[in-house]
Amino acid sequence: MGTSSFRNLKLLSLIVILGSACSSVQKLDEPSKLIQEPYYKPIGESANVFIFRESESDFRVRKSGHEVPVIAFSPIEYPKSVDNKLASYFEQEISLIWKDIKYTNARISKDAWKSKEALSDELKKKDTDIVVFGSISESSSGWTFKFEIKDSVDDSKFGEFELSFKKPVSTEEVGNWTQAIFWKASDRIISLETRQTTVPVWDRKPDVARIKEIVNSSVKGFLNVRASSSDTEILWKGKSLGSTPLLDIPISEGIQEIQLVLKGKKPITKTVQVRAGKKNFLFHEWEEDKTLGSAKVISVPNGLSVSIDGYKQGETPFFRSNLTPGAYQLELLKESADGSYVYYEGVLDVKPDKVAELALPYTGKDLLSESEFWKPSGENGFSAIGPKGLEFAKKKNLPNGWNGAYSLPFIPEELELEGYFLLPVDHKEGSVAVTFHFPGLSLGLEAGKEKVSIFQFPSDGRTLGTYKYKDVDKDVGRPFSFRADPKSKKLSLYLGSDKVWEGDLPAGGLWTVSVLTRGEEFREKAPLKDLKILYKGYK
Predict the structure, then answer these.
(1) Which residues form the PEGA domain (predicted)?
(2) pLDDT digit string, tens, across residues 132-183
(3) Which residue in 87, 116, 213, 490 has the fewest CB atoms around it within 10 Å?
């Protein structure tokens, strides 16, 4: 072999090595397997049972919540200019703010604050609700303290407040701290010395009522209830919370029963699992005049203006019942001081005794927690949605077949749907299928503990290929994405950075995505780590 040929061989080898190094997955040399097409179906109220779910990662998901918040106070790192005596004075004064606020003090060891893992363990052990993080800054005129009140699990903020002390600069502003020194004899106590020390004075005190409000909110979630009839009354523990639509009503954490009452109808009771600091959504479709229809339009995030036949009707999430069947001109707009931007313009087809549903997840991040985007699908004894979004649970063994959730039909555009299958160590047993449903085509992935298979329907039911991920980010998971490009009329499927399928993009209609698990290979709890829909051009 000549020098030139050897050089070319080395170059070819290098290209192969580099190509292999950039690949995210390896296609396995194994025969295709038969798979039943993942299917979803609407289920009635009786089948959508409530099942309590404990969470391995969130100890604040509870059957019964705390009435009095459990609080942990972080140590404050004082500057060197603040000696122990002055620090003690500050802490004594600040503690007076908390004396009229009801709470239980979770005393956390100082060493635990030095390690995030150790702190998390301590907070869980003490069943803590919130952590008060304090910091101090010093200026020429005095000291300012800032306090943040955060969730003990996910670090979300319930609120914050500030206070300050100033250095005395005149005789009127001088504060005195009397210190007495005693000597104890066998039969009496003798005062040896009394002296006064100049101390800082209050400059700005916080609003204690506001602090109390923030602390009390830490053991409450928020309830949002909508119904097809705006006359629906909502009761909780026998007390009326008002009529629908009911938005962001504080409600105690834990398992709660909500009653929906409409004149002339049998009352309906629904059970929700409230996680403090989070939102819960309920929607009930009453059986109305079967000659009329209803409409449900949501966006992610909320707040797009809904215009029907040229007239503004409200904002997303939007619900309307008793609509005359027919085709309505629908516009979804984002309004600002500079004018309105039309995000969608099309036809909403309302049919008798049906709910016309439409979703626009235009910046659809963390879709797994968007309860209104999903509808449960499955058998009696299965529940798809928990306090943190999609969390699968069952009360009994389920028959073979698919259980899970499917999305509202969403608007076809140039978009990317991406998500992460759990790592093998977290996935454990069972399987999860993520399917993109187009008019006339279903394309998807079925993930087990180690392997991921591609399928499409209509077909003979055989998978198109099976892959195994190579090195993955242990903090993220096993990534996948569907990419739709109406301009080139192409649809692509990726595992990591590898394009593993490409075909023609079906035209027309709305699109749906489903996340399902099989009864015989049930995947409990969270089916995925994350899911996003990113529309190109929308901000």
Answers:
(1) 296-355
(2) 999 999 999 999 999 999 999 988 999 999 999 998 765 455 454 554 445 5
(3) 116
Return the ∠ at Cα 77 (arms to 173 and 133), rounded to 5°: 95
| Cβ atoms of 447 and 454 closer than 8 Å | no
Residues 523 and 424 sit within 8 Å (Cβ to Cβ): no
Count of domains for the chain: 2
Task: Provide DSSP, 316-348.
Answer: SSEEEEEEPSEEEEEEEEEEETTEEEEEEEEEE
**What is the domain extent for residue 203?**
70-168+187-218
Q: In what order do the strands lie in the sheet with 254-261?
A: 239-243, 233-236, 254-261, 268-274
- Of 450, 448, 383, 446, the C-alpha closest to 38 is 446
Residues ≥6 apart with Cβ < 8 Å to 84: none
* 142: CATH: 3.40.50
Chain centre distance of CA 520: 29
Query: Which pTM does this prediction carry?
Result: 0.71
Q: Is residue 512 part of a domain?
A: yes
Cβ-contact 211, 263 below 8 angstroms: no
Residues 196 and 250 in one domain: no
Query: Vertex 392, ends 533 and 355: CA angle to 5°?
Result: 60
